[in-house]
């Protein structure tokens, strides 16, 4: 009897141990907590921390659709050719664009480390005649087909504190400001844009700021031809009533100098006004425009003659609607006027209707755009969804 009890007890003990071991074998580990994206409000709205880093990232951009009609010289219209008889005729200028932007920011012991990129993708037809001439002088009629216009890298810079390097627009334009809030603000041009830069920006914190920019330029006549860079310097004083600013640029290709001064005035809460004047030397700007479309101008003094003036303003009817106007002229007797009304249908979606006028002077920088009239008028309707 004792032997029987001993055997039964041993069997029970073995079953218990086996069961415990089986239970231990299928034990599931506790899941690790998920790492959610955290909002970063240091640099403004829209930023979030890249998981596992101290870098804040923002992604944005816009989708835009332009419909232009009128004369080519106003920058709004386009030319094409009849498919049956080859006659030249007016057509729409249309362009669809997707722009992708990124911003990053991170605090370091040497100041804020920032980056900014902007890449643009375009599809549409051209704002000129649809023809080209071959090397043997034969004119080929191509119409004005819509096509993918390629991808452009408009900005790609790194900034640590006040030092910026990379692809930017020239400080000759960005520091002093663009010529108003109209779409066609270059009817009388006020400087070229795309360039690589090594730039230092100084902000005294009391309204006074300054910039020094070493630039490479771009294009046939704009890109530097040696190790000597273009140089741009600027000063600005900003207060509640507005700002006074000025820039001076040295074009190392032609050893010419150009400058602009600007006055901005916040007349009321609803009205803002500006006037900007430019002056540049042109003794060595000898490239003929018939040989090089951008010839005779250099990189900074884009206007005709020595001087040019731009002026205009914005009137805000309410939070959704604004009226913008700009007028410009230069020594070459070119005159441009642009005016529009911009309306925010809903937050992030803006429709802008603009009318543009261009008078081509005796000494013009606009002939290469195929302006075939002394006086050109056009209109542009723009839809833009920004995010």
UniProtKB/TrEMBL annotation:
Source domain of life: Bacteria
Keywords assigned by UniProt, alphabetized: Cell outer membrane, Ion transport, Membrane, Porin, Signal, Transmembrane, Transmembrane beta strand, Transport
One term under GO cellular component: cell outer membrane
Protein's membrane topology: Multi-pass membrane protein
Keyword Ion transport applies: yes
Location in the cell: Cell outer membrane
Primary residence: membrane
Signal peptide, first to last residue: 1-22
Single Gene Ontology BP annotation: monoatomic ion transport
Family, per entry: Belongs to the alphaproteobacteria porin family.
Biological role stated in the UniProt entry: Forms passive diffusion pores that allow small molecular weight hydrophilic materials across the outer membrane.
Name of the protein in question: Porin
Organism: Rhizobium loti
């Amino acid at each position: 009897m004792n032997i029987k009890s001993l055997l039964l007890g041993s069997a029970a003990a073995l079953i218990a141990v086996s069961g415990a071991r089986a239970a231990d074998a299928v034990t599931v580990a506790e899941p690790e907590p998920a790492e959610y994206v955290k909002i970063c409000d240091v640099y403004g709205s829209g930023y979030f921390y890249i998981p596992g880093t101290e870098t804040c990232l923002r992604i944005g951009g816009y989708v835009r659709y332009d419909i232009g009609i009128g004369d080519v010289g106003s920058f709004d219209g386009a030319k094409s050719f009849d498919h049956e008889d080859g006659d030249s005729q007016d057509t729409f200028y249309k362009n669809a664009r997707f722009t992708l932007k990124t911003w990053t920011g991170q605090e370091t012991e040497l100041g804020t480390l920032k980056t900014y990129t902007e890449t643009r993708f375009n599809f549409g037809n051209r704002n000129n005649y649809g023809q080209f001439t071959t090397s043997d002088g034969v004119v080929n009629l191509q119409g004005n087909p819509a096509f993918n216009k390629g991808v452009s890298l408009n900005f790609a810079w790194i900034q640590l504190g006040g030092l910026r390097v990379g692809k930017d627009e020239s400080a000759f334009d960005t520091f002093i400001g663009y010529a108003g809030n109209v779409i066609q603000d270059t009817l009388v041009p006020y400087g070229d844009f795309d360039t690589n830069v090594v730039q230092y920006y100084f902000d005294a914190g009391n309204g006074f700021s300054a910039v020094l920019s070493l630039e490479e330029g771009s294009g046939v006549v704009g890109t530097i031809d040696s190790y000597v860079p273009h140089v741009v310097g600027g000063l600005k004083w900003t207060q509640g009533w507005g700002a006074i600013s000025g820039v001076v640029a040295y074009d190392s290709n032609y050893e010419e100098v150009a400058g602009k001064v600007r006055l901005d005035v916040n007349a009321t809460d609803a009205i803002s006004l500006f006037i900007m004047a430019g002056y540049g030397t042109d003794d060595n700007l000898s490239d003929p425009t018939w040989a090089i479309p951008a010839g005779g101008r250099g990189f900074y003094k884009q206007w005709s003659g020595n001087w040019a003036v731009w002026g205009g303003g914005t009137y805000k009817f309410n939070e959704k609607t604004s009226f913008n106007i700009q007028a410009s002229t230069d020594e070459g007797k070119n005159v441009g006027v642009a005016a529009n009304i911009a309306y925010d249908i809903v937050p992030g979606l803006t429709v802008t209707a603009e009318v543009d006028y261009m008078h081509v002077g005796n000494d013009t920088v606009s002939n290469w755009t195929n302006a075939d009239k002394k006086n050109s008028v056009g209109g542009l309707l723009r839809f833009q969804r920004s995010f």
